[in-house]
TrEMBL record, chain A:
It comes from Brevibacillus porteri. It is found in: Membrane. Belongs to the amino acid-polyamine-organocation (APC) superfamily. Spore germination protein (SGP) (TC 2.A.3.9) family. The lineage of its organism: Bacteria, Bacillati, Bacillota, Bacilli, Bacillales. Pfam families: Spore_permease. The keyword Transmembrane helix applies. Gene3D superfamilies: Amino acid/polyamine transporter I. This is Spore gernimation protein. It comes from the Bacteria. The chain crosses the membrane at residues 12-30, 42-62, 74-97, 117-136, 148-172, 192-212, 224-242, 274-296, 308-328, 334-355. InterPro entries: Spore_GerAB.
């Protein structure tokens, strides 16, 4: 390709991973995690991370096997032309839809809680314009912007749950027992979507500096996300109790709202929280759409100009796509459907890819040994 | 898509063709008019030749005399650019007094040439040219000497503790100020001439063995490719060689302080001095120039670190405070503590405008005041500033045009923007304040955040001579962090910052500092 140097350091990969994972999902996680598990809802993020980490391990394996190439290159190489191309297409489509859903979700949050007079369309358009601006730059800018915006994500996501523990009623966590492990599995399958974003590493690992520790980056990223989700769910359960959580649309935002007896110089925090949270949502959508557009560029073997034109053109269908769900209930049902598709793309395909590659390596190794012996 | 691509390619080709044509037309216009001939052996003919090049120029002085060997001779120079004592005492007296057996004039730099073009160029830069009958070569004597400002304290970058001398308008004096601090034989100076008509001298300075050679070559290549007819200030060079010409951020640092240039040379950067201006350039520049001052390294590190944080806070205030006020008062009043919000509402009750208009109006007023006080003659400048600010501010509040809180905010914002040690960095922040205010007026805190992210994307895409603008913050470099927000004690900064690809990485060697 062009002079795209491989210059993503381990820390940059970690920050890409963290900020791709933590996005809008954190605003609803206390509700989805406690839906089936009730007071044991904090098991949800743990079950989710177990499922996701299998796929992450597969992706790290693939990243080490194919240094310098994105999924656009290695999918057809592993699965062969036709199926590989289909997988690439599905992956790109999924990222595209996921970005749209995330943008819409964030627009809903902003419109319902901070800017009630502003039309939803305006919020989505401004967010998409921002993402478009990012997509017009080279890929190293993505790594740097993630790195720069990490503090904007770290502080609120750790501070808000910790501060809200002031209102916590710790008895809400009791009784300490699991009623059925099947429910834990089901919740895990639902909450693993919190960690989606890791599949973008199939693009960004290609630009890791030779010698960057991909495994290290993924483990750090995953454990950070786990901690954030875990304390958010615990904060949600202890502050509200699981019954009340089911009635809240954005439980984490409610957590912020009840955190107001701190006597700091600001009286209420939710506007500030959402403003800072723009950074986190932006990196999520930005990373997704950048991966989409960038993989299109790699697919067609074009240059930066193609990328810029695509970025501008693709925003139009994306905008109309975000407006398809009529209301928030419909939006959540679309999210559920996308989760099912996402399961195929973010879990099954990477694992299958890794297994196929592993088998092939074993087979080739066997053949080499045979060759050394003088052929079969 | 392919046709679009073709169109772009054709467009690109056309642009390139136009560019190369433009380059052909350039090439030393003013010197082209001087015919490239050699001198003859006849004095009068030679004088005619030189005078023809200058037309009827009355400040071109031709002094004819007879040498001790009875040959006709003449000195040609431009009035005011030469040291007359040198010409009378060491050229004319030397050449005419029979007791002195020495043949040549006794000036400190002496060159022989018969090329007319070179002679004309030297006369223009203050040389006296000596022509002797029967000799085809002319003597080029360095007699440069014109009235110059002496070395004074820099106006824009004053420090409490630190050297008081600043650059002046003369290139060689400025270079000497650097040499005087850096007695390193590895300090290299490359001389270049830019500007077709002004023929401005430029020194590119770097330390051999520290500066990254490809970066030095890049700087020199970029200066060579500058085709301007005039270079009146280093800003011309800065704007022509920076990486992104459309960016609001300065990608090359400028300074009036020789100690700052030396410190930066020692970090592997490259200094550019331009004749005729007290502002030197330092390339590459990174974002930390916005709040770092040479004084940080002269004071003890606790204080220096604290002051850096104060500068960062004041830059953020200069950028964000008015827009935060707009966002809070028009979108998120619930965030302001209730007693304050009552007080603010009482203050605003008579104000007829929305807070965005109020803020824009006040910021505009303060910008006018600021610009006017720069132009006002020295002694009355501050007076007018104080009177204008106090009287206008007070009257505006009393008249109910603006709220008292707004006056406080505008005042703090203006003071905050002066805390940045670099004027050209502060001016970028000052300019960006207005779009943030408008976005805050449209979307509240959400708008402010959108704009901040746009700025951050732009900053992370910026590069100055291959060095990312946000380094060492991004890409993260823990060693560089010692001198980013903090200012580590000198004995801990053993290595030079890595981001400038320094060749000699160690600043303080272990063996030199036994514990």
């Amino acid at each position: 390709m062009e002079n795209q140097q491989r210059n993503f350091g381990t820390w940059q990969l970690t920050s890409i991973m963290i900020s791709s994972m933590i996005g809008v999902g954190i605003l609803i996680i206390p509700r989805t995690a406690t839906k089936l598990l009730h007071q044991m809802g904090w098991l949800g993020p743990i079950a989710g991370v177990l499922i996701a980490s299998v796929a992450v391990a597969a992706i790290v394996y693939l990243g080490n096997q194919f240094p310098g190439s994105t999924f656009v290159e290695f999918m057809p190489r592993i699965f062969g032309g036709a199926i590989g191309t289909l997988c690439v297409f599905l992956f790109i489509l999924y990222q595209f839809l996921n970005a749209g859903i995330t943008a819409r979700l964030f627009g809903e949050v902003v419109v319902t809680s901070v800017l009630p007079q502003t039309p939803l369309e305006v919020i989505i358009i401004t967010l998409l314009l921002l993402v478009m601006f990012l997509c017009c730059h080279e890929i190293e800018v993505v790594a740097r912007i993630n790195e720069l915006l990490i503090p904007f994500l770290l502080f609120p996501s750790l501070l808000i749950p910790l501060v809200s523990f002031m209102n916590a009623d710790w008895y809400n966590l009791l009784p300490f027992q699991v009623e059925s492990w099947k429910q834990v599995m089901k919740t895990g399958l639902n909450t693993y979507t919190l960690y989606t974003g890791y599949e973008l590493l199939m693009v960004y690992f290609a630009f890791a500096i030779p010698g960057a520790r991909l495994g290290m980056a993924s483990v750090t990223g995953m454990s950070f996300a786990l901690v954030v989700y875990l304390i958010t769910v615990v904060a949600g359960i202890t502050v509200f109790g699981y019954e009340e959580l089911q009635r809240l649309v954005w439980p984490t935002l409610e957590l912020v709202k009840v955190t107001q007896r701190t006597g700091w110089f600001l009286e209420r925090f939710e506007s500030a929280f959402l403003a800072i949270w723009v950074a986190s949502v932006f990196t999520t959508i930005g990373n997704m759409l950048y991966a989409t557009i960038f993989s299109l560029r790699r697919w067609f073997r074009k240059g930066i100009r193609f990328q810029r034109i695509t970025a501008i053109v693709i925003m139009v269908p994306l905008f109309f796509l975000t407006l398809v769900p009529q209301n928030i209930v419909e939006l959540f049902s679309y999210t559920q459907h996308l989760t099912a598709v996402g399961f195929l793309i973010t879990i099954i395909i990477p694992i299958l890819l890794a297994i196929t590659q592993f088998m092939r390596n074993q087979f080739n190794k066997g053949r080499e040994v045979n060759n050394e012996k003088g052929g079969t | 898509m392919s046709s679009l691509n073709q169109f772009f390619q054709a467009w690109q080709k056309r642009k390139e063709a136009l560019q190369s044509k433009g380059l052909d037309q350039h090439s030393n216009k003013s010197m082209e008019s001087v015919s490239d001939v050699t001198l003859t052996t006849n004095v009068e003919e030679n004088i005619q030749l030189i005078q023809a090049q200058f037309g009827k120029c009355d400040d071109l002085v031709v002094r004819r005399f007879q040498t001790k060997s009875k040959a006709q001779a003449a000195i040609v120079f431009i009035d005011g650019m030469v040291d007359r004592n040198v010409i009378s005492d060491f050229i004319i007296r030397y050449m005419t007094t029979p007791d002195i057996t020495y043949q040549d004039p006794a000036t400190n730099e002496l060159d022989l040439t018969d090329k007319l073009r070179q002679i004309v160029r030297n006369i223009l830069s203050g040389c006296a040219v000596l022509i002797i009958d029967g000799c085809q070569n002319a003597y080029l004597n360095n007699t440069r000497g014109w009235d110059r400002r002496s070395v004074e304290e820099p106006q824009t970058e004053s420090v409490v503790r630190g050297p008081r001398d600043g650059f002046c308008e003369t290139l060689c004096v400025n270079a000497a100020l650097i040499r005087f601090r850096l007695k390193d034989p590895n300090l290299r100076v490359r001389h270049m001439v830019v500007g077709e008509r002004t023929q401005t001298d430029i020194y590119v300075m770097y330390i051999d063995g520290i500066a990254y050679p490809p970066m030095v070559e890049e700087v020199i290549a970029r200066i060579e490719s500058v085709h301007l007819d005039s270079v009146l200030e280093s800003g011309y060079i800065e704007q022509m060689i920076q990486d992104r010409r459309w960016s609001p951020f300065p990608q090359i640092q400028n300074t009036e302080r020789p100690d700052k240039v030396v410190a930066n040379l020692l970090e592997g950067k490259i200094g550019i001095l331009v004749d005729g201006t007290p502002f030197g350039l330092i390339a590459p520049a990174v974002f930390s120039q916005f709040y770092q001052s040479p004084e940080d390294y002269y004071e003890r590190f606790y204080i220096a670190t604290l002051i850096r944080f104060i500068r960062i806070i004041s830059i953020s205030i200069a950028l964000l405070l008015p827009s935060l006020y707009i966002a809070f008062s028009s979108f998120h009043p619930e965030m302001i503590p209730s007693r304050l919000v009552i007080a603010m509402a009482a203050g605003r009750s008579t104000v007829p405008f929305p807070s965005l208009i109020e803020a824009l109006f006040m910021e505009l007023a303060i910008e006018i005041l600021r610009e006017a006080s720069v132009r006002l003659p020295g002694p009355i400048g501050p007076t007018i500033g104080i009177v204008g600010a106090l009287v206008v501010g007070e009257a505006a509040v009393t008249a109910g045009l603006v709220s008292p809180v707004m006056v406080i905010i505008v005042a703090v914002t203006t003071i905050g923007s002066f805390a940045s040690p670099s004027y050209s960095a502060a001016i970028a922040i000052r300019m960006l304040r207005f779009p943030v205010m408008i976005l805050a007026g449209m979307f509240g805190l959400y708008g402010i955040m959108l704009f901040l992210i746009v700025i951050l994307i732009h900053l992370s895409s910026l590069k100055s001579f291959g060095v990312p603008y946000m380094s060492p913050l991004s890409p993260l470099n823990l060693n560089g962090m010692k001198d980013l927000f903090l200012r580590a004690p000198h004995h801990l900064m053993k290595r030079r910052p890595m981001m400038f690809h320094v060749q000699d990485k160690i600043r303080i060697r272990e063996e030199d500092n036994p514990k």
